[in-house]
Specification:
alpha+beta, Immunoglobulin-like, five-stranded antiparallel beta sheet, globular
Length: about 270
């Protein structure tokens, strides 16, 4: 177990003032089978009252409304997560993670990787688990990509990203999900935080023996206690950290994100 201190901040700047701003945030790590979250502090500019709910994927959802004009929308979340990956608790099986989702539907390029991975999996020992099989897929995905910020968007599919062989953590995760699901593994998308990243991160979890086991295809390694989960779902669309609508004329917006995660050693 590790005691991880996190500080996550997002700032939206608008070229001209906006009004009637309605927003929905999934920015608060929730306590769950592999982590316990305490001492959470949320600050927001402009200040506004927040309503808290839990969505169908057990993610914490904060919603709010800012009527007055503003040209900056900024929020930060601070807290502590006690992460114990080795002793992750069991969760009920959910069949929906076996099937394609909007951003993971295979095309010709994904189909080629599925075939290649199937051949590699056929060579594994008969006692290989789904985690062992997922490690093989993870390595294939890692080798197929060059990490390249700015060449994909939040709407880029796994097929599009793999076809160009470049993308960011979201694209690695979507590609791994697409392949794993078509090889019979139950897999879900994770949005969260990782020490040293400076921003949010994405990885994959495989359901095995009643528990969700994390694998990070961007770094080609198993998830450990330095990873903090914020949200999970079928793909990125279920885990969008912030979405909203507002009124304004010819508004351009820019976004900056800063995330800090570090282990707090016992005194």
């Amino acid at each position: 177990m590790k005691k991880m201190v996190f500080d996550y901040e997002t700032k939206l700047s608008f070229s001209t003032p906006v009004t009637d701003h309605r927003f929905q945030l999934r920015c608060v790590p929730a306590s769950g089978p592999r982590q316990q979250v305490v001492d959470v502090e949320i600050s927001m500019e402009p200040e506004t009252e927040l309503e808290t709910t839990i969505d169908s994927f057990d993610s914490v959802v904060k919603t709010g409304f800012i009527r007055e004009a503003h040209d900056v929308f900024q929020y930060s979340v601070k807290g502590i997560a006690f992460v114990d990956t080795e002793n992750t608790k069991a969760e009920p099986y959910k069949p929906l993670y076996r099937f394609d989702s909007a951003l993971t539907v295979p095309g010709p390029t994904i189909e080629v990787m599925i075939a290649a991975c199937r051949t590699r999996l056929d060579g594994l020992d008969s006692g290989a688990t789904d985690v062992d099989r997922a490690k093989t897929v993870m390595n294939e995905v890692f080798q197929a990509f060059i990490y390249t910020p700015g060449v994909t968007t939040i709407r880029t599919t796994a097929e599009q990203a793999l076809a160009q062989g470049a993308g960011v953590c979201q694209d690695y995760a979507h590609t791994m999900l697409a392949v794993c699901r078509h090889l019979g593994m139950t897999a879900r998308y994770i949005a969260g935080l990782l020490g040293g990243e400076g921003a949010t991160h994405a990885w994959v979890e495989i359901y095995h023996d009643g528990r969700w086991i994390g694998l990070d295809p961007t770094h080609n390694r198993m998830v450990d206690d330095e990873y903090i989960t914020i949200a999970h779902g079928r793909d990125y669309r279920d885990c969008m950290l912030d979405i909203g609508i507002f009124s304004g004329a010819n508004v351009r917006q820019t976004q900056s994100v800063n995330a800090s995660v570090h282990e707090q050693q016992p005194a």
